[in-house]
Amino acid sequence: MELVFKHVNVEVDKKLILNNVSGLASPGELLAVMGPSGAGKSTLLNTIAGRIPLSSGTITVNGHSITKDLRRKLCYVLQQDIFFSSLTLRETLQFTAKIRLPDKMSNEQITSKVDEIIQDLDLTRCVDTIMGDVWMRGLSGGEKKRASIACELVTDPVMILLDEPTSGLDYSTAFSLIEMLRSYARDHNKTVVTTIHQPSSSIFYQFHKLLLISDGELAYFGDTGKVVDFFHKADVSMDSHYNPADFILEKLKEDEKTRLKIVSAMDQMRNSSNWPVKLRSSEDLLDDEIQPETAPPADIMMEQPYNEKDSVRVSLIELDKTDDNTQDQKWPTGFITQYTQLTLRGFKTSKSQIFSKFKLIETVTLTIIVSLIWFQLPRTEETLRDRMGLLFYMGMHLGFTPLFDTVIAFPLERMVITKERLAGWYRLSAYYLAKMTSELVLILIQPLIFITIIYWCVGLNGVSSYYATLGTLCLHSLAGQSVGLFLGIVSMDIRKGMTQATIYIMVTMLLGGFYTRSLPVWLDWMKHLSFQWYTFSALLYLEFYDGPDLRCAVRTAVSESQFSTCLDSNSTSIPSSEVLQFYSINYPYWTYILPLFAFIFIFRIAGYFILKFKQKPNQAK
Ligand SMILES: Nc1ncnc2c1ncn2[C@@H]1O[C@H](COP(=O)(O)OP(=O)(O)OP(=O)(O)O)[C@@H](O)[C@H]1O
Ligand SMILES: [Mg+2]
How many angstroms separate the alpha carbon of residue 79 from the centre of ligand 1? Predict the structure, then answer.
């Protein structure tokens, strides 16, 4: 499809970032957008992709203004490669294809599409390698970049926008990437627009067209091969041994006088007959638009004569087709597909976190130590405090670990989600529900192992109380995770999140009912804000309700029992129920459990809405 942007002005915060920029990109060709840093290259790409609004000017594709549907048919490869690091390249591509290709495509079709792209982008060697990140070795920089491009190509986009695809790559990798893009554009008749920083001259001449921006103004648009000539004519000449790409950028940055010379030479050219008809001012264009296909391509500037009527016609048919298919369909796939695919991916990513070596070591070490410390605890008044300590500790470990893990994990996950949501892959609700589902099973595995071993090693109340304790602590873990997710969403940054989480945890712990059971009256209400308090109360209930009696403390000269039963009568044991009374656990079990559900739901729902409205991803920066 032919992309034409004319007289594009973009203003951000009252600052004119793009000033009357025009250009076009034709199917089968590569357009390079170059300019010094801060010139407005990314802004131009963002504007074409529809992520920054135009202040004035027009952007059309085959003569039609870009609609939302059409925008879904163009792809945008961001400068950073953002992925879930633990997934392999094939998993990543399969997920992308399944969530972005229409539901009616069969699995075989999707797989063959993915295979085709893996071939096209020469990624066969690393399909089973994990994506990796700074901590985990995975794909190399160049492979990752190609993976980013591959993720965009699965949908067979009509146009490909790339922001600095070669930065961070060595010369030969960069060269082969651009060469690959060039042959892809030619073979599949795609329009490719890419910003590029400091290309070598051989990379530079791979591009058919060049658009130069300087301080938001157009400094050149036309054939790449003619830019040096243009500079000559503008009275800015180049030594013969120079790399033209270095030369033009150097000149644009040299001083204001040279820059103005170039910009005004460009202005002159825009008013000359050399300037493409399609980029002329709007009055000229009105005649032109009546018959967009038959308009003579009267531009001498184009090196190859404009002979791609056929391709234009083909893509116009394509355009009609897309209009039919996706007119009122906001998402490429239905909710169910999105939910299923996101759940599967969520399962894979959280599996690698939860079953990681470190997690395993943590669980095993803590389980062993706790079992040894409290092994077969005698049921006596003297060890009452130990028993409570154990119950409190279980709550602390199983509540705060998921809380911390989530606070740390979410900001990284958010980057991927933001990228995908900006490109309109799926609904937020599908993602959020899928996240809850995929993590549910995994988050409960840890309590299951931990509690089962410890409960019987220590010798707590009994079988039915074991199951209830397990259930309570699973809810407790979920409540901790909900709070963590909420804090992660609110802070959006690991360090801020950790600080908030630490404050919350410390306060929650103090109010949790173990360190002090008699808070000052004016502070007492605050314990209700602590999910640890509810869990601890519920655990005490389960341990002492209907449990075996406790042996009274041995009376000595300096101490005696705290329980009246032991003091008054000759009884040597304390009924469990008296312990409950002593610690003011006076309400039925469910009154301690219900608030945990409230914690789970309120924090998750609040997190969803904050994600949806407050932290709306605005720009891909
Ligand atoms: N939200 C914003 N508010 C104010 N100024 C902005 C905003 N976004 C971008 N700018 C400014 O717009 C100009 C162009 O930014 P842009 O990111 O498009 O540059 P660039 O050409 O891509 O640079 P680089 O080569 O360094 O990536 C810069 O001067 C930048 O500071
Ligand atoms: Mg940029």
Answer: 14
